[in-house]
Amino acid sequence: MVQITKFCNELKRVNVITELGMLHININDRIIKTKKSSAICFSDLIKEKYFIDKSIMSFKTHLNIICKDSIDILTNFIETGKLEFEADEPHYHDIFEIGKYFGNQILIQIYSEHVKSDKSLTNENVFQKYEISVLENDSTTMNECIEYISSHFYSFNDDVIITNFAQNGFEFCEKILKSKELKIENEDKLCLLLLDRVLQTGTGFEDSCQLRA
Questions:
Q1: Geometric angle at alpha carbon 34, from 29 and 37, rounded to 5°
Q2: Which of 92, 94, 88, 109 is nearest to 1 (CA)?
Q3: Which of 4, 87, 108, 152 has the most CB atoms around it within 10 Å of its CB?
Q4: pLDDT 10s digits, 135-175
């Protein structure tokens, strides 16, 4: 298995600063004990929270993490500035989830480069490419992904459609459902998928129905 290694010199240097005190980062009930200086350097989110309340001692969240060792990988990265992980899809997924939530551009960039390394659009990578294009404000790739998803809509697993509709929001759904390239099995199935999305997100069903009116 290929191993990915990346260094962050800023994290390595800032780890020697101790006067800010310690911070406990609770992710999925796993606690990372680190210096506030390291946490602030690692995360734009934690930096914002620190400037609001400099007495902050702990931070808790829950992330959609797949791999058992991802939090250990993150702990080592925060403490040493060295990021090292297996180059497989589950680990790339976790690296991106962590980077996106905490606001760490190094982690986001690693995932972005991985997704972009495959120049083709497929059912397996198109939603990932769309998400990256939104983060990077790449309208060309965004439109290419919308067109691909619309023209291959009938071939996606229902769970994939529902999950990505819920994740990417109303504007994404609107672009897909109003696309001239949209190919579906039948209107009834589409309505059921929209209803599932409504149940997941709480968005008004009337809004979703109007998209196909």
A1: 130
A2: 88
A3: 108
A4: 999 999 999 999 999 999 889 888 888 888 888 888 898 89
